[in-house]
Design a protein that fits this description.
Elements lengths: L1 H4 L3 H20 L1 H22 L11 H25 L9 H12 L13 H32 L1 H14 L8 H8 L2 H26 L3 H9 L4 H39 L4 H10 L3 H28 L4
Helix pairs in contact: 5-13, 6-7, 6-9, 6-11, 6-12, 8-9, 9-11, 11-12, 11-13, 12-13
């Protein structure tokens, strides 16, 4: 019975070799290894393909919306010109669109001629008006934006200046023109003064409102970090207030362009406003209509430029 249970040493060694034989054969056989590698790679490939996210398909171009966006302004202008042509069909005093177009082509064929101080091309008149707007608007920005920060940061100064701003802001811009003529004794600085005084209020108000709407948590963190007032203004307030400030700048430049036309009508000299009034004295209605379109186009370009700047520097 004992001999039936225990094997001989020879049988044990042969059994050990037999148990190791398949592993040795599979590791030493290159064809078997290649088969295992290829099966492993084929199994891993679908897993990797499934793990990799599929590329999002490109959104198709909405040609209908694109055509509608392009043709709608053209259709609006065509409607305006059509109504204008119908109303002036039998008129002897008001020019037709065709006559105005011919006058515009002739006018812009040489926009920068100069035949003396009171007879210059429409290009020079536009540039002189833009120069006055830039000077008055720039001075208003230099004064109005820092003053808005001060009003927004100090409750005492805000309570002192708010009644003055509320009193002077509704005053018509042209009401300030005689004050400018009295103080400066000249038409050109008086026009710049008028632009300055009418452009400063939107920048002050919008900047102050933006400072007052900065979250209190930001200022509390600044106190904990013991930041200086300069760092609070440059690192916390300025990025938060910038959208409000640019809105005030956009409103101010639109107001400045409106005011310069009226101011130049009263002060004379070179400028688009004086040019309109001079053409009225000459009873040249065609040039007055052209000036109206030019004033509108320049104002639209200024507006769009500031909107682009506001989008570029948005911190949202």
């Amino acid at each position: 019975m004992v001999s039936a249970v225990f094997h001989s040493p020879l049988d044990a060694s042969e059994a050990h070799k037999a148990s190791r034989a398949p592993a040795t054969t599979s590791s030493s056989n290159p064809m078997t290894s290649a088969a295992l590698a290829s099966s492993t790679a084929s199994t891993a490939a679908p897993v990797a393909a499934a793990a990799k996210p599929a590329a999002a398909p490109k959104a198709p171009i909405d040609w209908g919306a694109l055509v509608l966006k392009t043709l709608s302004p053209i259709a609006g202008l065509a409607l305006l010109v059509g109504i204008w042509a119908l109303l002036t069909m039998n008129s002897t005093t008001f020019p037709t669109p065709a006559a105005t177009w011919q006058a515009a082509v002739q006018l812009f064929s040489d926009p920068f001629y100069s035949n003396g101080p009171n007879d210059q091309g429409i290009g020079w008149n536009i540039l002189f008006s833009l120069k006055r707007v830039a000077m008055g608007f720039g001075l208003a920005a230099l004064v109005g934006i820092p003053l808005g920060f001060i009003i927004g940061r100090s409750k005492i100064i805000s309570s002192m200046l708010n009644p003055i701003i509320s009193l002077l802001r509704p005053v018509s811009p042209l009401a300030w023109l005689p004050i400018g003529l009295l103080v400066f004794k000249s038409a050109d600085p008086a026009a710049i003064w008028t632009i300055f005084i009418c452009s400063i209020w939107p920048m002050i108000i919008n900047t102050a409102v933006g400072v007052q709407r900065v979250p209190e948590d930001y200022l509390n963190v600044a106190k904990v970090l013991n930041l200086s007032e300069w760092k609070i203004v440059t690192k916390i307030l300025f990025p938060s207030v910038l959208p409000y400030m640019l809105t005030g700048v956009r409103l101010s430049v639109g107001t400045a362009w409106l005011v310069i036309v009226a101011a130049e009508m009263l002060t004379g000299g070179v400028g688009i406003g004086f040019w309109v009034w001079d053409e009225w004295n000459n009873l040249n209605v065609q040039h007055i209509i052209i000036a109206i379109f030019v004033i509108g186009v320049v104002g639209l370009l200024l507006e769009n430029a500031l909107v682009a700047v506001a989008k570029r520097f948005s911190f949202e």
